[in-house]
């Protein structure tokens, strides 16, 4: 490739990646709609107390963690093949060398590493959002877990697409985008709930089912303490996302997520959905 061809190739790669990202976002909302419609509305009725919600949330975290177990088994199986063929190939001493010489191991290791990172963020967002969802909306946790697992498997498949077709690993952007949207959704619920109830969360221990099941977040009308601390923190995080989307260079993978996070948070504040006390 000549120096004159390189800018065109970079532009082509960016358009290709943007197309895969757009496909991932469209897939997220399509699967979300289908899953929400198929899931019975009474799935989460009766889960109003904190212990019941904790067990409910932990069950979903455990379900999501099974992907880590699959990744671990996949890595172990490929390393077993390598070390039985070459007993001197000790991963403790030559892990990088093994990764470079065995394609299967590279794919599985990358999946396991990235899924571990995503799992930590997703689990934290899930556990933080759980106390603030009314009973009918608790099935959002189930839907997001299903979508997250589906996205991770698609991410894994994206790497194998590269192996088979010898193309860039852009297809994994579909799975990556779906998983990040799940985390962002639950993180948004948690941020809203914390801002509404801060600094006292005692009322949540009594359990609630919401006003006719029509609200996503259960507000606390008796709360009088200042919530400037969480509102300021979450606002700074939203602004940081916007900055990462445009500096130092335009970053298309981050732009849509930054737009959703920033515009959504601004709307909640400006509309008074999150009153600043």
**Count of DSSP-assigned helices:** 8
Question: What's the oligomerization state?
Answer: single chain
Helix proportion range:
over 70%
Measured on Cα atoms, how large is the radius of gyration?
A: 22 Å
Can you tell me the residue ranges where pLDDT is under 50 for at least 5 consecutive residues?
Answer: 209-213
Number of domains: 1
Report the sheet with the most strands, covering strand number, pairing sense and barrel closure: none
- Any idea of the CATH topology? Four Helix Bundle (Hemerythrin (Met), subunit A)
CA-CA gap between termini: 60 Å
In CATH, the homologous superfamily goes by the name Membrane associated eicosanoid/glutathione metabolism-like domain
CATH architecture type:
Up-down Bundle
Indicate the structural class: mainly alpha
CATH top level? Mainly Alpha
Approximate shape: globular
Order of helices and strands: HHHHHHHH
- Portion of residues in beta strands equals under 5%
Number of strands: 0
> What is the mean pLDDT?
78
Give an overview of the whole structure.
The N and C termini lie far apart (60 Å). The protein has one domain: Up-down Bundle (Four Helix Bundle (Hemerythrin (Met), subunit A)), CATH 1.20.120.550. The chain has helices at 5-38, 50-85, 91-101, 103-129, 139-165, 172-197, 228-246, 255-270. Helix content is 71%, strand content 0%. It is mainly alpha-helical and 277 residues long. The chain is globular.
List the helices and strands and how they pair.
Layout: H1 5-38, H2 50-85, H3 91-101, H4 103-129, H5 139-165, H6 172-197, H7 228-246, H8 255-270
Helix pairs in contact: 1-5, 1-6, 2-4, 2-5, 3-4, 4-5, 4-6, 5-6, 6-8, 7-8
